[in-house]
Amino acid sequence: MSGWLRIVGLGPGSEQQVTPEVSAVLAEATDVVGYVPYVERVAPRVGLVRHGSDNREEIQRAEQALTMAADGRRVAVVSSGDPGVFAMASAVFEALEVGQVEWRGLDIQVLPGISAMLAASARAGAPLGHDFCCINLSDNLKPWALIEKRLRLAAEADFAMAFYNPRSKARPEGFARTLEVLRDACGPERLIIFARAVSAPDESIRVTTLEQATPEMADMRTLVIVGSSQTRLIERSGSKASEPWVYTPRSVGAESQASTSSRA
Amino acid sequence: MSGWLRIVGLGPGSEQQVTPEVSAVLAEATDVVGYVPYVERVAPRVGLVRHGSDNREEIQRAEQALTMAADGRRVAVVSSGDPGVFAMASAVFEALEVGQVEWRGLDIQVLPGISAMLAASARAGAPLGHDFCCINLSDNLKPWALIEKRLRLAAEADFAMAFYNPRSKARPEGFARTLEVLRDACGPERLIIFARAVSAPDESIRVTTLEQATPEMADMRTLVIVGSSQTRLIERSGSKASEPWVYTPRSVGAESQASTSSRA
């Protein structure tokens, strides 16, 4: 039997958010390749070799996976969340493009996963319920000037915004600058959500405003969502009351639609 | 036992992309509420009442679901894809905000699903592998002028773009105007993907350029993705060769990174 390569998303952390098709691939694979903490989410078993590697080794990891698939192995490349959102799928295609010509005939599939932004949005309510954008704030991958340009254009377009990789020890300043740009472009009252470790035991969701937000509220396990001008809060009541719900109406002018309906 | 409300995503179509936590909710629910074709994806069983309703009745459907949960029922509101992306989650919160005060104490959770844009992106390769935006092209929900403004700003930001609801019988002109705006803002060579009925038996993926794209390539079952200036193709080879892979590198300048690594 010839080999294959599957680039799969494990979702944000809970096994309850791993799709059946991804579980089936992991059960059939001979090799699992990925960043160490993601590879460790796949249980060891006889016949499975787990190849964990460090962060920032994405291209080497992709070449390793393609080489093994070409050798007839059944290889699963694992990412957290969705593999197509700032994760391993693009790295594999980068390696494929410049790699051996015969790799282009390999049986390759990308299998989607629950992305961190969708999981975080669900926990908070529905802040991404209208038009939005998704930006990786790491300036390892692009110049800061491009990040700032995109932040300002996204604010002008009145998109809600989901931010990956807001802050790391190596880049302590970038997120402070992001908050400054957003306060300038969106005003101090704009809502911001810090969703940390979504679906893990230490999950936390914090809702505040740009005025109250500080850089320390984010780390590399935090997905940050900034609302559009239309995004708003609903206070919860009762014994389970915690953070308010945050949602963005589906349409510009949705308030009147809902009000009319409930009066009818 | 008191009632609850779960707003769940069924994914784009295949049962293999429904998460275990959503399947568990559907197995425990007393009532399933949603647009008819989505409700019909939940198999009938004793003890389950399926409440299908028409499109554009989202607010009435949300009020019905909240009322039943307040009456002690276990209610699942179902959306295709992810419930937080142009789907029922925002509609439920719109109804909650203007509805009965006691609804704010209800046990409500949103459970994410594989969104159409992530499923379509996976089938094509990794076109959303760098910064991107997501726009609903229906002008039922906002004025066309705002859509055009967002398209132009997204092009200036050099986002890849995912488009929901590109075209319907009631709005045959909007997508033709979208293509005109994009050709003007992005140039004729920019890549565009038409992903129709992803994960269903009649799935089709078509990759072309803005110059070659025509409005008839999209309908209401089509998710459209337009690449950024960096998005590119990899031709496949071998007996399974079909549409080329489409991907966006993770970083501005990724090509040199991959080339360097593969030479090492």
UniProtKB/TrEMBL annotation, chains A, B:
- Domain Tetrapyrrole methylase stretches: 7-213
GO terms classed as biological process = cobalamin biosynthetic process; methylation
Q: In which pathway does it act?
A: Cofactor biosynthesis; adenosylcobalamin biosynthesis
Lineage top rank: taxon: Bacteria
Q: Which Gene3D superfamilies match?
A: Cobalt-precorrin-4 Transmethylase, Domain 1 (3.40.1010.10), Methyltransferase, Cobalt-precorrin-4 Transmethylase, Domain 2 (3.30.950.10)
> Pfam families under this entry?
TP_methylase (PF00590)
Which GO molecular function entries does the Swiss-Prot or TrEMBL record give? methyltransferase activity
Tell me which UniProt keywords the record has, alphabetically.
Answer: Cobalamin biosynthesis, Methyltransferase, S-adenosyl-L-methionine, Transferase
**Record keywords: S-adenosyl-L-methionine included?**
yes
InterPro entries on file = 4pyrrol_Mease, 4pyrrol_Methylase_sf, 4pyrrole_Mease_sub1, 4pyrrole_Mease_sub2, Cbl_synth_CobJ/CibH_dom, Precorrin_MeTrfase
Establish whether keyword Methyltransferase is in the entry: yes
Q: PANTHER family in the record, alphabetically? A: COBALT-FACTOR III C(17)-METHYLTRANSFERASE-RELATED
Name of the molecule in the record: Precorrin-3B C(17)-methyltransferase
Organism from which the protein derives: Halovibrio variabilis
The gene name on file is: cobJ
